[in-house]
Amino acid sequence: MFAILLGMAAIIVAGLFWRILLGSEKAESIRGHMVRAVYDVFLPALVLHVMWQTEISLNSIRLPLVSAIAILLSLLAASLIYASGKWLPGSATQKRKAAGALLLASSFGNFTYLGLPVLTQTFGPWAQSVAIYFDLFASTPLLFTIGILVASHFSHTTKASHIGIELIRVPALWAAIAGVLASAFHLPMPAWIDETLGVLGAAVVPLMLLSIGMALRWQSGWARRIPVLLPVVIIQLVFMPLVVWTASIGVGMPENLLAPAIIEGAMPTMVLGLVICDRFKLDTSLYAEAVTVTTALSLITLPLWLKVVS
Description:
Blueprint: H1 2-22, H2 24-52, H3 59-82, H4 92-107, H5 115-123, H6 128-153, H7 171-184, H8 191-201, H9 204-215, H10 226-250, H11 255-265, H12 273-279, H13 284-309
Helix pairs in contact: 1-2, 1-9, 2-7, 2-8, 2-9, 3-4, 3-6, 3-10, 4-6, 4-10, 4-13, 5-6, 10-11, 10-13, 11-13
């Protein structure tokens, strides 16, 4: 797995250097267009392709349930640490913005953007459905409901409205539902659709990894923020996979899915949270640092988790 992660890390680093060479403003513009293409076209194609070929079973319930349990317990743990804001630096307003960003950073893993490539390269294409069930049937609905409510609560300027509207605008979710229905009714996949979806889906992994690198940020004065970010690191990279492991055993997860589920639960902070922090005027810079540090450390912790569970 280390060699696989090293190869993926090289793409992430390439994205980081591209950001440095282009400058933050231009890099963000390019990254925005790249992510939009993945979000609207390539990822839905991959999701439809995978789910259409995935047999519907009890695992279709087990995996989202385990993901939801891990996210909600991580949010609870983060709330006990950060919600009061007492030990966060800055004014009362800054504390609230930081607390909101840190709660999101602690609770929602990068299940698709990094999880999908990691599971694909580590276990094979069959494991892609684990990432899709974890994200689109649990993490994404929770993010656009409870996550939005959390962001709204800690925002001084923006309030949540039409909760769930963003959720029904997620193209990959509709692709997942269509794929599940096609699988459930045993609809044959025409060869030309199979080939087209395969070509479009192949673009997802490299573009996702490149966009992660372009999203990484770090600012001066990082040393004094290490104590603030440390609980995020522990919750995302240690606590959440432990919860996934325990919950997986509790719901009777098949042995072949146990390791992929735990590795999926060990993903670093999700990149998409940057958009929510921007929208609700939370501490986006602090959230970006959480993404950066958890992503960097995950290159060490993911092989360790794989060694433990295999």
